């Protein structure tokens, strides 16, 4: 059986997120889905896997079903495949943030950077006046990144604001292009930089996964592998499964 794996998120007002946990858990269990879902007042974030028709039913419920009442009508979805179930169980957790930065001024529902499609990304990062910034943690960067990208050398995304305060200057860095795995960290990071007075902030829409899916390897500026938060460990161009490596099984996950 080929499993469908779906990474998804949306920043949206969910003041009832605590009450949504059990209905969503029951819905996922009824579809035999496994994976991890985070719910917070600011939205939803997760990666799940299951039979293709079950994943489709899940995505339809989130975007169009009565459970969320149309509040997830702009859901960011990225789907790939796996030869084996990449999750051991289903986990639904309640969090303060769906991606932890710890900056109340960084509100992606109010302002974010300029989205750049995968097809336009190469031209943007090739420009000499663009600072290309990888917002992921050091372990992920070591596995693969874009040519010329700055590694903030952080252990978790929560440290990004300290990196920005110490290393980035709105007067010097006038044009910043940032990226992450699926796009969610850049939503928070771009909101943070805009709140600090940075004028021109871009981010890769759909993240590295969308880029690897759409940009042919011959035209790619990506080097290495893209770490993913499941038992497949990493994906390559065309979202091809790289394969599980024993040394990577227990690496600390950065949400």
TrEMBL record:
GO terms for biological process: tRNA modification. Its EC number is 1.14.-.-. The keyword Protein biosynthesis does not apply. The keyword Oxidoreductase applies. Keywords: Oxidoreductase, tRNA processing. Residues 126-220 form the Rhodanese domain. InterPro entries: Rhodanese-like_dom (IPR001763), Rhodanese-like_dom_sf (IPR036873), TrhO (IPR020936), TRHO_N (IPR040503). Pfam families: Rhodanese (PF00581), UPF0176_N (PF17773). It is an enzyme of class 1 (oxidoreductase). PROSITE patterns: RHODANESE_3. One of its GO terms (molecular function) is oxidoreductase activity, acting on paired donors, with incorporation or reduction of molecular oxygen. It catalyses: uridine(34) in tRNA + AH2 + O2 = 5-hydroxyuridine(34) in tRNA + A + H2O. Gene3D superfamilies: 3.30.70.100, Rhodanese-like domain. Catalyzes oxygen-dependent 5-hydroxyuridine (ho5U) modification at position 34 in tRNAs. Belongs to the TrhO family. PANTHER family: RHODANESE-LIKE DOMAIN-CONTAINING PROTEIN 7-RELATED, THIOSULFATE SULFURTRANSFERASE/RHODANESE-LIKE DOMAIN-CONTAINING PROTEIN 2. This is tRNA uridine(34) hydroxylase.
């Amino acid at each position: 059986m080929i499993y469908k794996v779906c990474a998804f998120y949306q920043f949206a007002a969910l003041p009832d997120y605590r009450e949504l946990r059990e209905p969503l858990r029951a819905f996922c269990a009824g579809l035999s889905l496994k994976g991890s879902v985070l719910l917070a007042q600011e939205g939803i974030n997760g990666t799940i896997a299951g039979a293709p028709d079950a994943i489709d039913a899940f995505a339809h419920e989130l975007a169009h079903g009565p459970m969320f009442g149309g509040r997830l009508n702009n859901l960011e979805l990225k789907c790939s495949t796996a030869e084996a179930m990449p999750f051991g169980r289903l986990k639904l957790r309640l969090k303060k943030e769906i991606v932890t930065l710890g900056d109340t001024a960084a509100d992606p529902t109010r302002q974010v950077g300029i989205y750049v499609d995968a097809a336009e990304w190469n031209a943007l990062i090739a420009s000499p006046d663009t600072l290309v910034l990888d917002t992921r943690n050091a372990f992920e960067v070591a596995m693969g990144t874009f040519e010329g990208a700055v590694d903030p050398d952080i252990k978790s995304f929560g440290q990004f604001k300290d990196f920005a305060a110490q290393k980035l200057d709105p007067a010097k860095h006038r044009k910043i292009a940032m990226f992450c795995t699926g796009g969610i960290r850049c939503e928070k990071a771009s909101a943070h930089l805009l709140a600090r007075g940075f004028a021109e902030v871009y981010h890769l829409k759909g993240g590295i996964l969308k880029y690897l899916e759409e940009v042919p390897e011959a035209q790619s500026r990506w080097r290495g592998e893209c770490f993913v938060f499941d038992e497949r460990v990493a994906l390559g161009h065309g979202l091809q499964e790289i394969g599980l490596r024993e040394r990577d099984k227990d690496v600390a996950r950065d949400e």
